[in-house]
Amino acid sequence: MKKLLLVLILAVVSCKSTKETIASDETKINTLMDSWHKAAAEAQFNAYFNMMTDDAIFIGTDATENWKKPAFQAYAKPHFDKGKAWSFTALERHVYFDKTKKTAWFDELLNTQMKVCRGSGVLVKIDGEWKIKHYVLSMTIPNDNVKAVIEIKAPIEDQLILGYKKSNE
């Protein structure tokens, strides 16, 4: 009976500890993402890129923007050097964890100079610290305006599609 009671107590403590860890990690991730966006708005180049893993990927709103961290740094540096890169503020964010609690993913709606955008990404815990490993930024398009947007982007993206088709032949 004592063993059963001990097992039940350990299970309750473990469950509570896991919930507390998830809540703490979710807070850390929200703080990281808010700080990351703030670092861009304040043109803090090193702070911004130090929040990303060395092998991070950033996918921007343009179909050609699929950058490994060094290429993204090269693209971003002139913007940061001007004193302000871009300004994103989270309107909402949802954070999820894998079973190991060492990988998390999120989606967020952002208030930006492009109006509402969506960000999503993957974070990994390295030596107890969360880092951004993969980030995707996309513009939102109201469903009623999709046709008009397609008409605007079709000439550019038709050429892009042809280029990809040719390179895959």
Automatic annotation (TrEMBL):
Pfam families associated with the record: SnoaL_3
Domain of life of the organism encoding this protein: Bacteria
SUPFAM superfamilies: NTF2-like
InterPro entries in alphabetical order: NTF2-like_dom_sf, SnoaL-like
Transmembrane residue ranges: none
Annotated ranges, domain SnoaL-like: 29-142
Protein's recorded name: SnoaL-like domain-containing protein
Native organism: Flavobacterium hiemivividum
